[in-house]
Structures are given as C-alpha cells and as structure tokens.
Amino acid sequence: AENWYLFDEMFSFYNVYRKFFSPSKFTLILYSKNSKILEKIDKYDWHDEVEIIYNVPRAAMPEYINLATHVIFFLNCLSNNGRSPIKLAETLAMGKPIITNKGIGDIDDIENDKCGVVIDKFDVSQFTNACQRLKNTKFDSQAIRDNALQKYDLNLLCEKYKMIYDKFF
C-alpha cells in the first residue's frame, strides 16, 4: 500500500543522492496515479529525472529492480513494525544494495551485512552521510544474493521454523 511509504523523505533523500551519483534517475513504481505524490515531485527542480511506472505485475518486478544501481524505500515504521517488506528480499535476491530507514522488521542488519545503507533520521546531514557511505562501499552483488538466500530462502526458513516448533511440541 502506498500509504506505507514516506515519499517526502525519499524525495528529500534523492535531492542529496543525485549530487553524489550523477547522472542519476529516480524510477518510481506506483500502483496507480496519485496526484498528491505527483505534486510532491513537482516541487523539485529535478522532477524531469523521475520516471513513473504504474501497476507493475509482481512477476515483472525483477526486470525493474535489475535496472537499478540502488533501491530506496523509506517506510512508515508504525505500520511496518514487526514485518519485513517483500521488496527487501526481492531486491537482495537481485544483488542490489538497499537504502532504507531503521526500525522495520529485520532491516537494521542491512548495513552490517554490506547489503546497503540504513538511515537513522530523515535530515540532510544523515542523507549526506548515507550517500558518502554508499559511494565508499564496494557492494558485491553475489555476496548480497548469498545473504538473501541465507536469510530469506523459503525452504530454509521453513526448516528453521520446524526446528523451533519441534522444540516446543
């Protein structure tokens, strides 16, 4: 649901990001047209760098993720506490580094695992620091994919769940 995403914060981040990674393009994938989001983008002088794609079928998401250098998503912690977004596993499985905010599911380990950058607060100094860390980190796509396999492979997770379940019953 689009109300989980912090669009103002993502656009503010991109305002800093584009200075570190130039030329750049912000591809925004939305379920449907949303005039409020479009108005937010129009406030920036880089709105012509934004490509908006609507209603992408889940099966086609890997195509779009594969085109990215980095994948950004800032989520509302209140509505996403205790869950890990599907796009996290999808993105890591594609070997792409993630830029996201702290406090969502098991995302906080992303940076320690060399799979991306985690933002503590939404301000220009944090964004600048995050972009510097991104620029100074050599991300290894295979290592990111391997990490995703260890943490999010459904068969492995089912085995772990069964082991825990068997201990109690």
Keywords:
alpha/beta; 5 strands; 169 residues; three-stranded parallel β-sheet; globular
Give an overview in words.
With 169 residues, the protein is an alpha/beta fold. The strands form two sheets. The protein has a three-stranded parallel sheet, with helices on both faces. Strands 1-2 form a two-stranded parallel sheet. Helix 1 packs across helix 6. The longest helix is centred in the last third of the chain and has 15 residues.
Query: Average pLDDT, to the nearest integer?
Result: 86
Report Rg: 17 Å
Per DSSP E runs of 2 or more residues, the count of β-strands stands at 5
Give the spatial strand order of the biggest sheet. 3-4-5
Shape summary: globular
Largest sheet entry: 3 strands, parallel
Point out poorly predicted stretches. none
Determine the fraction of residues in helical runs and give it as a percent range: 40-55%
H/E order of the elements?
A: HEHEHEHHEEHHH
- In terms of DSSP E residues, the strand content is 5-15%
So how many helices? 8
Secondary-structure class: alpha/beta
Summarize it.
This protein has 169 residues and is of the alpha/beta class. The chain has helices at 7-20, 35-42, 61-67, 77-80, 86-93, 124-136, 141-152, 154-168; strands at residues 26-30, 50-54, 71-73, 98-101, 116-119.
Show the helix and strand layout.
Blueprint: H1 7-20, E1 26-30, H2 35-42, E2 50-54, H3 61-67, E3 71-73, H4 77-80, H5 86-93, E4 98-101, E5 116-119, H6 124-136, H7 141-152, H8 154-168
Parallel strand pairs: 1-2, 3-4, 4-5
